[in-house]
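Task card 7
Instruction: Convert sequence to structure tokens.
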Amino acid sequence: MTNEARDFPAQALPPWRRAVLKVGSSLLAVDAGGLSERHARGLADFVNASLAMRREVVIVSSGAVAAGRAVFSAAPGSGIAMAERQALAALGQARVIALWQGLLQRPVAQVLLTHDDLRNRRRYLNARGTLQALLAMGAIPVINENDTVSVDELKLGDNDNLAAVVAALVDADALFIATDIDGLFSANPRLHGDARAVGDVDAITPEILAMAGEAGSSAGTGGMRTKLEAASKAAAFGIETFLFNGTAPGAVAALGTGTLFGTRFRPAQTRLAARKYWLRNVPLETGAIVVDAGAAAAMVEKGGSLLPGGIIDAEGDFRRGDMIQVVVRDGDARTVARGVSQYSAKDIRRIARRHSRDIESLLGYSYGGNVIHRDDLVLS
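Output:
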């Protein structure tokens, strides 16, 4: 462990079942271009140990551009044109996946996302469904921004914030950010010898943000500020963030024993409360799903999902992924819930009163047996 790491006292990690691990370019890249297993191996050991404890891990990994520079000896360095950087990302992404597959004990799945995929609700649901299916299969998703086509995202190179959004996407309990510094300091410890280690952060205030320094390496462009932004985003979803030194073998090995040497960022509220708050405050689309009394009782009294068998009709012309109210019209009309619909109004009218197993034969495709899953539903 580095000398700096001794400034951070040991903290017991809280229990977690699913986590996102973000690994930056500075931990994978070598100066001449290409990737090294030097630090990745210890991180992979942590992932493998977590899987052995029946936990799930999603990796958000940088390094594609750095890996691409090693493909051709004449590949240019920093300051290259955007199109060339995109080409290097395309060349290097396969090497990033190969690196992780060689170190991990489960099948690795490449998933390339853009911020647009995560802003568009229907694409967000598709991405979430894919990641959940991969985790259910026992695979390890390795996620990167789709640098080949995402000009703005590539320019920002902000996989820290992407990792926070992915953590919310997969309902993670924890976000681990591996960097090349031991945690958050009151100032940049490489420039200020009196910098103070900050081991526990209750809230990311302007004063905490002021502690952030600039990017610390030529391989990556994300500095401490983007890590604080990511922790803030994760906290809004009720997810804890743990910042640690991925180049310090002792700090990495400690994670496998449930110990953190680094900075812990605590959420302001529980993950469930954060999600329910979001569900209650997303604007409703025009329209409604009309259900019978039995379906209403299943949602209200038993906490169940909304299934097609309890649906009478769909009003309006809403689309898959829209936030829709669920109503009962048994005399006095009343709203019983609101939630994210997995199917469009047109599709719901076709599957209403039918069994979930009939969805694919009726529509020619299926997004699952729930019209609104209980995790995407909040009672009125």
